[in-house]
Write the structure tokens for this entry.
Amino acid sequence: MRLQTQLTLAFTTLLFITMSILAVTIHSLLLDVLIQNERNQLQEKGKIIVQLYYSDFAPAGFGQWLTDEGLYMFIYDREREQIRYHQDSLDPELIKYWVKTYDLAQQEQPLWYDGETYYVVSIIRIYPNIVNQDLVLFTPLDDLQEVQQSFFNQLIIVFLVGILVIIILTHYFTHRMVTPLTQLKYQLKKVEKRQFDDIKRVKATGEIKEVEESVIEMARELQRYMKSQQQFLQNASHELKTPLMTIQGYAEGIRDGIFEAEESDQGLEIMVAEISRLKKIINEMILLAKLDSDENIYQVHSLYISELIQSTVDRALPMATDQQIALFHTVKQDAVIKIDQEKMLRAMMNIVTNAIRHAKTKVYIEVTQESGRLYITIDDDGEGIDDALMPHLFERFIKGKGGETGLGLAISRAIVERSNGVIRVDRSPMGGARFTIVLKI
Ligand SMILES: Nc1ncnc2c1ncn2[C@@H]1O[C@H](COP(=O)(O)OP(=O)(O)OP(=O)(O)O)[C@@H](O)[C@H]1O
Ligand SMILES: [Mg+2]
């Protein structure tokens, strides 16, 4: 069932239940109120009747007036237990029966019943200090029930009109609410079909707006991801094809006896070098894939940051010495971090060996702390990184001048991100590049 129909139905059902409860309550209360009101009126009328009855001035047609008003009366002498007066239309036997059944001393009388009809009764004490007589005035309940029914009918009409108006309003509001969702559904279909360029923004407010923004962001991210995957595939096949073609060329040349003895030895040397390059690329690709998907590959242990820096320096020192680069390091404040030592060492080594390779005279590693975060910076005084390369530096197979496979920094980023850290690149005050790793302590 459509969401709009569901919402309208839910609101209508709720409204219907509320209105029904209200109607039942009003219906039962209404009769009570009408009876009470009638009793009060009977009291008022009764007082006038008493005055008229005991004044010598009893108007002609009095009995007729009573009948026209739907009123009945009799006067009862409590002391003598006698009926002093009753309307002609009233059966004295019935009056006797009533007097026996109901307690006339009670101020508030229940409904009296004659076997057919119920009556609302009021008892008016006639000059209580002088005579012990009561005027019993009553009127049939049927009249009141008619009033109740007609009032209730009007109420039902008002309720029905109200329900209709509310249903229309509900329909209108749910339509306004659901339309952006429907439009969003169409945009999601486009994401599914990968028609990213056709995706349009949907006008919405509140939570739906937030969902819309998330959907758009998700589509953009997906598009970026797919583009980078495509790029990765192209780069990977290129990187794998080049050494393979070199190997194939030399292998065929040696097989066909094209190369002389010395040339063939050289060819074999090149083949071995290309094969180890291929092995390196494949190993790095496998590591990247594992870092992306294998949960168990990352084993976390606690260790001091100074230990990690010392291991990096120990490993990088031979290369630095070889290239006559001075390698400095300072840990301003030591701290314990939770990382996979071996992986993080690998990430650091990628950055530090890059820095040594590109530096002119020196590389500087520094560790600082600020507001619960650890900052590891690696600076060099080399030529720095091209502005055009900067935004893509951590992508796979992206390399610049003097680059090798272009996977090192992609691996470094994957490792740092698995350690819940962030890696970024800037210009160094020393002239070259500055890499910063930010880790939570
Ligand atoms: N400190 C640096 N100074 C200047 N350029 C750098 C520096 N570090 C990295 N680069 C540039 O960034 C590119 C990518 O580096 P990355 O480490 O990802 O790949 P690589 O060093 O070429 O190959 P490998 O996969 O063997 O590490 C390098 O090719 C290089 O051009
Ligand atoms: Mg590298």
Summary: The pocket of adenosine-5'-triphosphate (ligand 1) is lined by residues 350, 354-355, 358, 380, 382, 384-385, 393, 398-410, 432-433 (CB under 6 Å).
